[in-house]
Amino acid sequence: MADNTPSTTDDLQLRMLAEGFYLQALDQVTHAGMGGPSRLPGWTRKHVAMHVIANADAFMRLIEWARTGNENPMYPSRAARDAEIEQLVASTPDGDVSTMAHEASEELTQALNTMNDDAWSALVRTGQGEETAASFIPWARARECFVHALDLNIGYTALDFPTAAADRIFAELLGYWKKTETRANFLFHVTDREDLAEWRIDIPGTEKNETDFSQPVEVTGEFNELLQYAIGRGWPVSGRQDDAKGGAGAATPEDLPTPPPWV
After folding, report:
1. DSSP 5
2. What is the pTM of this model?
3. Residue 250's pLDDT band (boundaries 50, 70, 90)?
4. d(C-alpha 251, C-alpha 247), whole Å
5. Are strands 131-133 and 123-125 parallel, antiparallel or unpaired?
């Protein structure tokens, strides 16, 4: 059987694609628009932007750890991460955000280019404290950029995600629900994937949700539309009034119940 596991080279290329996708979205946010609401509760677009910049710095700390063997975690703690974001939001002029984002992306590219095989296989810790090889960094950064491009809340959608990214994000989402014992019960009718035409997801769990999953929640749409809904980023604007998509019965995508939480 062929090994379809993405290589580090594949992930580096996907990360560059994701960085471009995110930066293209950010560059469309005006200075005045930085204070507008993002898709994340309590965060403005500027919060999202400063988080993505700080995340690049955090991955560069892991790269240094992998190259030198000197422990250098992404963040001292979640509280420290959040405090750094708030400090950056308060101290950074709105007009400097896009330039800083491009500079952080370029600096991360340069740091990634210093990695060799030994460094890629060196063990580091994720932001959640899990030990893993440093080769996780390019994909983790790609995921960060793809998802936070949606969080800027300017109309970008998961419909523009490449299949390789959409498949991996969905797989990680399901893995997260299983690991955290989060109840999820869906019957997805996938309109653009023959291999997943009717996709049942039934994950037992003890964690409570806003939604009653005693019966499967039926949802119809393209794979990437279902992904955007499942990761808690709403339904792509282009399909919100399409009665053939979304929940079962007469509901439109705007009427769908809240999905289980994700990181």
Report:
1. P
2. 0.92
3. very low
4. 5
5. antiparallel
